[in-house]
Design brief:
By secondary structure, this protein is mostly helical. The chain folds into two domains: about 60 residues, Fe,Mn superoxide dismutase (SOD) domain (Helix Hairpins), CATH 1.10.287.990; about 100 residues, Iron/manganese superoxide dismutase, C-terminal domain (minor pseudopilin epsh fold). It has a three-stranded antiparallel β-sheet. Strand 1 and strand 2 form a beta hairpin. Helix 1 runs antiparallel to helix 2. The two termini are about 25 Å apart. Bound molecules: fe (ii) ion. Fe (ii) ion binds next to helix 1.
Length: about 200
């Protein structure tokens, strides 16, 4: 099935001054759109390869699907991960799972921020749900490397430079700090309920 760009849950200006409107506009309308387009183009090429019976390009096209498809999926989660009106994580299943998986919320917060900050080059820090409901933090390189199959991301912090460079330049840790303060915990808790049902 073809990918489509999801609706942005807020206007381009909504996250200012944490993330400036120009960054959100470029990030959403250019970068995220490019992953959607790249994924769909790879799907078409894969269908053509299969129709022709020439499978020599399949390995390359699968790599394209992994890169662009994961980029699309993570950006979709990224937009939902933030809100202009953040509230603390309420008591409930997600909070209990964070405490069970990391000891307490403060330890989780430190590990998550560290994971986002130390990604080599371009990538993501994510919180993901294991098949048994346990939570794990990953530092993803590019969009698809260093994560385990079977884990479903519910919170994603994009640390490609296109996410923050206009406002933060090389100060990724400052961007990560502000991202964390803008997390939409209500949305993340809903995602956890859906994944860990
Ligand atoms: Fe991005």
């Amino acid at each position: 099935m073809k990918a489509t760009l999801p609706e942005l849950p807020y206007p381009y200006t909504a996250l200012e001054p944490v993330i400036d409107a120009r960054t959100v506009e470029l990030h959403y309308s250019k970068h995220h759109q490019a992953y959607v387009d790249g994924y769909n183009a790879a799907l078409d090429k894969l269908a053509a390869a299969r129709a022709s019976g020439d499978f020599s390009s399949v390995k390359h096209l699968k790599r394209e699907l992994a890169f662009h498809g994961s980029g699309h999926a993570l950006h979709s989660i990224y937009w939902r991960s933030m809100t202009p009106n953040p509230v603390p994580l309420a008591d409930g299943r997600l909070k209990s799972a964070i405490e069970a998986s990391f000891g307490n919320f403060e330890t989780f917060e430190r590990e998550f921020k560290t994971a986002c900050t130390i990604v080599e080059a371009s990538g993501w820090g994510i919180l993901a749900v294991a098949p048994d409901g346990r939570l794990e933090i990953y530092t993803i390189e590019k969009h698809q490397d260093l994560v385990e199959i079977g884990f479903v991301p519910i919170l994603a912090c994009d640390v490609w430079e296109h996410s923050y460079y206009l406002s933060y330049q090389n100060r990724r840790a400052d961007y990560v700090e502000w991202f964390f303060r803008m997390i939409d915990w209500t949305s993340v808790a809903t995602s956890y309920e859906e994944v860990a049902a």
